[in-house]
Amino acid sequence: MQEKIYLRPLCLSDVNKKYLSWVNDPSVTEHLNIGTHRLSQSDLVKYVEESPKLGRHNYAIITKNSQQHIGNSSIYSIDIAKSKFQLGYFIGEKNFLGGHYAPMVIFNLLKIGFLKMGLEKCTGYIHEQNIKARMVNKFLGYKELKKTTKFKTKNFTTDIELEITKNDWLKNNEILCSQFPEFYKV
Q: What is the pairing mode between strands 5-9 and 57-63?
């Protein structure tokens, strides 16, 4: 049975060998903007310490019953004047890939951005070839706006611009909460 998750602020005690292995695993970071260089423990400590100063809100993804730290997530690029933000996440523990884990993480990040922070729109970009993430975003109510092709590291990549408004998220949540009440709750 799949566990429900919750998000709690990421702290320095979360910077451990497990976290370090996640960010240095190409299969975990394939679609992230971390890049291909290896990170050290001190890189992660610096990231966790400096993020709040840069307006980045980082969260550990924790399973509700077993209390396992299975990945990390964040809200960043907050633009108060335009009432918008971006989000990111990764599931580092591979036995938690699939199911409702990724949608629950995004759902909870959107809930924080829209309901706790009072923002009105979440925007972002996703690699066109990241089909699973595109399906998750569509399931949650994101709209794909436009494609942009860039030359990156010896080949072309296509990114898709995404957006979801608070109103669209609230409408979609009525459906999610009624169909999957064990995972989604506003």
A: antiparallel
Query: pLDDT digits over 92-146, tens only?
Result: 898 888 778 999 999 999 999 999 999 999 999 988 888 888 999 999 999 999 8
Do 103 and 111 meet the contact criterion of CB atoms below 8 Å apart? no
Inter-helix orientation angle 131-140/101-111, to 10°: 50
Tell me how far apart the alpha carbons of residues 62 and 69 are, in angstroms, rounded to a whole number: 5
Answer whether 186's CB lies under 8 Å from 173's CB: yes
Looking at this protein, which amino acid is placed at residue 82?
Answer: K
User: What is the rounded CA–CA span in Å between residue 108 and residue 126?
Assistant: 19
Tokens of residue 42, six digits: 């001190």
Provide the pLDDT for residue 6. 94
For residue range 69-83, what is the model confidence (pLDDT) as tens digits?
999 999 999 999 999
CA atoms within 13 A on the CB side of 6: 8
Banded model confidence at residue 32, pLDDT cuts 50, 70, 90: low
Write out the CATH class of domain 5-179. Answer: alpha beta
Q: How far is CA 100 from the centre of its chain?
A: 13
Local structure of 94: helix, strand or coil? helix
